[in-house]
Amino acid sequence: MSVEPRCDSGGVLSFDLTSQPWLPVQLTTGEEALFSLREIFVRAQEVRRLSGELPTLEFSLTRLLLAVLHDALDGPRDLDSWADLWRDPDSFAATDGYLTEHCERFDLLHPVSPFFQTVGLRSASGEVFSLNRIVADVPNGVPFFTTRLPGVERLSFAEAARWVVHAQAYDTSGIKTGVVGDPRAKGGKAYPQGVAWAGNLGGVLAEGTTLRETLLLNLIATDHQPPQSEDQPAWRRPPTSPGAAGDLSVRPSGPRDLYTWQSRRLLLHSDADGVYGVVLTYGDPLAVQNKYLREPMTSWRRSQAQEKKLQQPLVYMPHEHDPARAAWRGMEALITPGDSDASTRVEPASDVRPGIVDWLARLQAERILHQGLRLRIRTFGAVYGTQQSVIDETTSDAVSLALFLLSDTDPVPGQTAVAAVADADRAALAIGDLAFDLARAAGSTSESRKLAARAAAYAALDGPYRLWLDAMAEGDDPQQLRADWQHTARRIISHLADDVINAVGEASRQGRLVPTAKGWTWLNAERATLWFNSRLDRALPLATTRAGALNAAQVVPAHQPDNIAHAGVGSRRLPV
Predict the structure, then answer these.
(1) Which is nearest to 470 in space by CA: 397, 403, 538, 516?
(2) To 10 degrees, what angle do helices 79-87 and 355-365 make?
(3) Predicted model pTM
């Protein structure tokens, strides 16, 4: 299929996103392809997932497709309507006529209403800027870490369309170009307004085995959401103009509005060979606080700092993803808090799980989906640096689990998964403290070894936890599951501890006096090991065993002053 622009009868260039291929997909066969908007809905069952240059691009494009579906279906209105769509192999048929009706608003090069752009946007000088401003895989100021050296001179229309969608979702903050007609511009500059909407989120999607399943799983019924008034996507609203829209006090009106939020005003500059420049500035601002009833694709955390700043009794902010922290380590905020009933709490919830997870829990409770259905909870995020003026890193992860783990009616399986993460946290703390104690025994107070040991522990536990979680089946005994996990974790952490202990030098073996909460004590490798065994026993009580443990009398003591109490080695003996 051609990806060349077309000319209408008047010779005006056109690139119709409903018919031209521009959406990157991975097929169920493993092949990669580009689909148009029309084709992706027709062939959604053949598509494994959207792909793209960055994980955040996949998240942005998925939200765009969901906005199209919500609007084309005008719903789904309720659970019954959703269930009909799930059973109907032709559930997306309504999109064909819908895209035909609105095809002009999906023209990337339209002379009046170019897709996701503002016609006539210009700076006072008329300058057109580099495409580096919207292409997020070119590290700002670090051009050597990209294949686009020395920068982005041109883009195909298909790729430019993808980066336009991404810019509206994830563009950076910082000082931007002031444009003619924007009352916020001062001295030719637009001052920081914050990152684009999705950049605030720790993005969360439910992923099925095909794109069709993924879109349906994330297509939340209207009756599951707050009342919506005039919820419309960007292409059914009047074309944007410089400056913020005038109706922001009553928006976002719903998911169609939010998934296509025009965080920026931008305009591509192109010729018949492609896109060569852009003008980019701020668009519609959107305060991030307390949007948890509107934004379903992130978890939320209570912010007492924001409550104090805004003088409000309760403020929730989106949970952002930490690139150094695997998705499974955030299970409590991601799938199910330990107590999901706010009425039983003295204090408001510290976390609010993603609305999409609440929706999946409802599908599970109503038995609309098979309880053993396995899906992946995928996470997406951007990490901004230098006052949010650059994207330092994009993140993506996933955890595979069974639907019943999200249940509100039987929260025990989900709580067991969350508790197992807490087990891992305590075990990682224990080995980190061991490394720190061994360093203190040698005279060092640096925490570098502690942090390295904890990182190694999480890396070693990562794969086993994911396998344990994925293997959980309905009807499994939660206590036995927890015990199995603790035994696995103890075996892994014990092997790591052996490596840490085997690496100690003579200074750690000899030891020295160190201050503790109870006064001064002699700390050497033996005592550090004894303390570690005690911590690990407390961290993983269901896996505690004293088989083969050594008594103090069996251990050859390290040299130490006679007036310092000798410490035995618990369940492992130091190499001599």
Answers:
(1) 403
(2) 80
(3) 0.89
Find out whether 288 and 315 touch, Cβ atoms under 8 Å: no
Residue 558 to residues 441, 509, 523, 562, Cα–Cα distance (Å):
12, 6, 11, 11
How far apart (Å, rounded) are the C-alpha atoms in residues 344 and 526? 47
460 near 502, Cβ under 8 Å?
A: no
CA distance 150 to 133: 14
Q: Which residue has the tokens 């030719």?
A: 188
Whether residue 21 contacts residue 34, with contact meaning beta carbons closer than 8 Å, is answered with: yes
Please, are residues 189 and 178 in contact by the beta-carbon 8 Å criterion? Answer: yes
Q: Compute the Cα dihedral for 415, 466, 355, 76 and give only its sign.
A: negative
- The 3 state secondary structure assigned to 167-225 is HHHHCCCCCEECECCCCCCECCEECCCCCCHHHHCCEEEEECCCHHHHHHHCCCCHHHC
- Give me 386's structure tokens: 């230098």
Tokens of 58: 């996949």
DSSP-H helix ranges across 209-279: 211-217, 255-259
- Spatial contact of 118 and 245, defined as CB atoms under 8 Å apart: no
* Amino acid present at 434: L
Torsion region of 311: left, alpha or beta (phi above 0 gives left; psi -120 to 50 gives alpha)? left
Ramachandran angles phi, psi of 266, nearest 5°: -145, 160
Nearest in space to 115 (alpha carbons), one of 44, 164, 159: 164
DSSP conformation class of 480: H
Tens-level pLDDT at each residue, the chain (576 residues) = 446 666 564 668 999 999 999 999 999 999 999 999 999 999 999 999 999 899 999 999 999 999 999 999 999 999 999 999 999 999 999 999 999 999 999 999 999 999 999 999 999 999 999 999 999 986 555 544 455 656 799 999 999 999 999 999 999 999 999 999 999 999 999 999 999 999 999 999 999 999 999 999 999 999 998 887 789 999 999 999 999 999 999 999 999 999 999 999 999 999 999 999 999 999 999 999 999 999 999 999 999 999 999 999 999 999 999 998 999 999 988 886 544 444 445 678 899 999 999 999 999 999 999 888 999 999 999 999 999 999 999 999 999 999 999 998 899 999 999 999 999 999 999 999 999 999 999 999 999 999 999 999 999 999 999 999 999 999 999 999 999 999 999 999 999 999 999 999 999 999 999 998 889 999 999 999 999 999 999 999 999 864 333 333 333 333 444 333 333 333 343 333
